[in-house]
Amino acid sequence: MIELINVTKKFENKNTIVFPNKIIINSGEMVAVIGKSGIGKTTLLNIIGLLDRKESGSYFLNKQDTKLLTEKEVSTLRNKSIGFVFQDFKLIDDLTPKQNILLPRRIGKMKSDGDFEKLIEIFQLRSLLDNSISELSGGQKQRVAFARAMIMSPSIILADEPTGSLDSNNALIMLDYLKQLNKMGTTIITVTHDKDIALQHNKIIQLGD
Length: 209
Ligand SMILES: Nc1ncnc2c1ncn2[C@@H]1O[C@H](COP(=O)(O)OP(=O)(O)OP(=O)(O)O)[C@@H](O)[C@H]1O
Fold this sequence. Notes:
- By secondary structure, the protein is an alpha/beta fold.
- It has a single domain (2-206), classed as P-loop containing nucleotide triphosphate hydrolases (Rossmann fold, 3-Layer(aba) Sandwich).
- 34% of the residues lie in helices and 22% in strands.
- The protein is built from 7 helices and 10 strands.
- The chain has helices spanning 41-48, 71-81, 97-107, 116-122, 138-150, 168-183, 195-199, and strands spanning 2-10, 16-18, 22-25, 30-34, 56-61, 64-65, 82-85, 156-160, 187-191, 203-206.
- The strands form 2 sheets. Strands 1, 2, 3, 5 and 6 form a 5-stranded antiparallel beta sheet that branches.
- Strand 5 and strand 6 form a beta hairpin.
- Helix 3 runs parallel beside helix 5.
- The two termini are 25 Å apart.
């Protein structure tokens, strides 16, 4: 369970974002975060994903006050429990798609490849595994990013505009992947500009008016 109480984020240049007083996301929910450009959607994902810990207010993750976690605890939690799909994918160009997908397992010093085979089937990546990242289309990069986000079987997936660079057909396929994951119990939090995509989630969090 994710619980944010009176959270605000002040950037060094004094930009301040005030989030709703209470944001509660239960385990197993599939939630869309919407709101106009610049309102703070990505910032919210960064806070929930513990990438940004300099917010004020309280953030409880599974009843644990995240302010009390050490940096080491945070990086273990992030690697094991939270999968990110970033707006710009953040794939590593010097690694192949296969190496990118397996990177969290290597960082976590895991000997097995986990669900690698299953994920490359789901995301139809077999023929691309040893290509260069720069040769991939936006949609292909997005599928690699998803497989990497899921390789640790995280309990939470945070996806920033996961359908942003896809045509409408592939956007629906991506949404289906998210729904399948959610059916298996994964909490999904999707930032999206697309009202139709948002309406396919169980809950919508609107930032701003
Ligand atoms: N590192 C930073 N330093 C200063 N201001 C920042 C920083 N990151 C974000 N901001 C500001 O915080 C606000 C929220 O940014 P954020 O990226 O979270 O918005 P968003 O709702 O995700 O926007 P978009 O839909 O355009 O992606 C914006 O006004 C942005 O300029």
